[in-house]
Amino acid sequence: SDPDLVARAAAAKAALGDRVFVLGHHYQRDEVIQFADVTGDSFKLARDAAARPEAPYIVFCGVHFMAESADILTGDDQRVILPDLAAGCSMADMATFDQVEECWDVLTDLGIADRVVPVTYMNSSADIKAFVGRRDGVVCTSSNAERALGWAFERGEQVLFLPDQHLGRNTAVLEMGLSLEDCVVYNPHRPNGGLTDEQLRGAKMILWKGHCSVHGRFSKASVDEVRERVPGVNVLVHPECRHEVVTAADLVGSTEYIIKALDAAEPGSSWAIGTELNLVKRLAAAHPDKNVMFLDKTVCFCSTMNRIDLPHLVWTLEALVRGEVPNQITVDPETARHAKAALDRMLALP
Ligand code: 13P
Ligand code: SF4
What we know:
By secondary structure, the protein is of the alpha/beta class.
């Protein structure tokens, strides 16, 4: 990266000292990650967001729903800043508040809403988390989805899982012992979700029709291809990948799990990784003694994660030095209160 920008970011960060706390998701660019005080997957960053209550500014290098969660989980006197407001998440955008309310109305009219526990993936807007919080549901991330589903099935007979159908299905089938037939997909663009009343009544898992535009692109063909090309390769993928990809892989886990698996891997071993490219490149560089490769070369970076780049970080930090607060992310208090209930239930999972 541009040495002049690196020097400017370093100078601005030094000038701010303890007044700024920089969080970086594992999918961020190296040029940004080098300035993070804490790096992590979305669970770790949610847990650590409140770790520096004395810092008035939290610069969140990640995407919008993560910055919202940080605002919800931190004190009123801390301001959360997203260096580029266009850093959203296409998966989170696949479930709007109105669509989820409409779905709940369908379940209510069917007389089954009382036995459905809503669970939302972290990758959802604050108002979806608040919706779930109001109905005594829970947030989950890719590192605790199994525990969150276990919690939900102790409280209800059915789960409405938002918005990632793949994480929901993979967790239900691979971790909870449910079958594919126990899962239906609710399409918010179709009347009744495109399902019959019987299907909605009979399903243990009502999966929202959402997916990650990055992980959803890995295919079973790419797993077969790498196994043929690289004998003995270990295929390690994120649970946002499609079910057929996850079942064809050797290991599945969140970004934090993927990092630990590589740390523990034998020198000389080969690894094909199905997750975001910035992380895979960083892992390959960190493990020169292992053969680390990207599972499918046709899959690209997460375009919204990549919007946070060094120029945006420099612009943000220099504005803070001048006493300006750009791109603050705020969640209104009523939404925050209910979303926090659902987030707190996740943070309290055993
Ligand atoms: P984790 O951080 O939970 O691994 O999720 C990956 C992701 O897609 C974040 O946007
Ligand atoms: Fe959203 Fe997927 Fe990008 Fe994560 S990797 S921010 S889920 S689009």
